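Record Aminotransferase, 388 aa.
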Amino acid sequence: MSLIDSFRAEARAAPESGIVAVVNYGRLREGLIPLWAGEGDLPTPAFITDAASKALAGGETFYTWQRGIPDLRQALARYYARHFGKTFPEEQFIVTGSGMHAIQMSLTALAGAGDEVIYLSPAWPNFDAAAALSGAVPVPVTLDHSGNGWSCDVEKIASAITPRTRALFINTPSNPTGWTADHETLQAILDLARAKNVWIIADEIYSLFHYGHGRAPSFLDIATEEDRILFVNSFSKNWAMTGWRVGWIKTHPSLQQVFENLIQYSNSGVAQFMQRGAVAALDEGDGFVAEQVERARKARDLVCGILGATGRARFTVPQGAFYLFFTVDGITDSRTAAFDIVDKANVGLAPGTAFGPGGEAFLRLCFHRRLDQLEEAAHRLAKWMKTV
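=>
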C-alpha cells in the first residue's frame, strides 16, 4: 500500500482548485494582469494595519478569547446595527480564522457522514469541497440562466431535499454569478427551510457590494431569532483583508459554547493583535467600503462596455459582488480557454469549470481593480476573442 492509499478517502478525493491550477500556471508571467482571484488590488488601509501594529507592539501576543475578544464582538454588533438596522448582543458572534473557517465550523456542527447539504450552483468551489471533506454529500441545485439573467427556482431546491438533508448553503450576492436574491426569493427559501426543518448557512459576504440602492437583501430582514440560520462572513472583501484570514459566524446565543469548543479544537482562536485591526475595520471603515463599492461599480461598467462591444461575449451585468461571469461564442471548454488566455492575452481568468454544474462554459473575471489595468485587460481579451 502506498503512503497516499492509507489516507482517508475524503482527503484523497479533495480536488485541486480549478482556479489555483490556472494561477499556478500563469502567476510568474511578466506583465500578466491577474483577474482570477476574488480580491482587489489595494493593500489593507493604514487605519487597520496601524491598529494591529500598535497591538502587536504592545504585547497582545498571548492566548486570547476563543470566541473572539469582547471589543471585536461588540464592534460586530455595532456594524449590524448600522447596516442592517438590527440590535444583536455580542453573544451572537463568534470570531473565526477566515470566512472559510466559519463555513467549516458550520459544516462540522451540522453535517457528517451520509448527510446532505444543498448549495446553489455555479458556486464558489470551496463549499462543495469542504462539505465532502466533512463526509457529507454536497448536492448542487443549479441557478437558472436566461436572457433575463440568473434566477433561483425555489421549487428545484424543494425537489432536492431528502430525509438526509441537513442544510441549505445560500450565497447572495453570489460568487461567481453576481446573482442577488430579492426579498421574495429569500422568504420562499426561509419558508421552505422552516417547513422541512433544515438549516440555512447564509453566506452574505458580498452584501455591501451591491449595485442597487444600499446593501443587498438579507435573511436578517425577514428572519426571527429562533430560525435555524448560521450567518458566515469574512473581513476579506469589504476591508481589503484577504490575507489576514479573519471571519465570523453570527448565531443564536444558545450555540455559543458549542462554537467556542469547535474553535478550541480547530485553530484555538484568532491572534489578538489581528482582532484589533478587525475592530478598526468595523468602526472606522464605512467610508473605505463605500469608496470600494463605487470603484467596483465603475470597473464593472467599464469591463461590460468593452467586452459587450465585441459582439462575442455574453453575460448578465452583475447585481452584486465583483465578478463578471461570461461566455464567449464558440467556447465550450472554459478550462482550456483560461490557459489559452494566459498564453495569448496575458490575462488571468478563472475557468467556469471550477464553479460546478452550470458554470462549465463560463469564465470569471474579477473586476475589483484599478480602471487602467481593467481597460487594458478587457482590450486584450477583446483581441483574443477575434482569434477564436
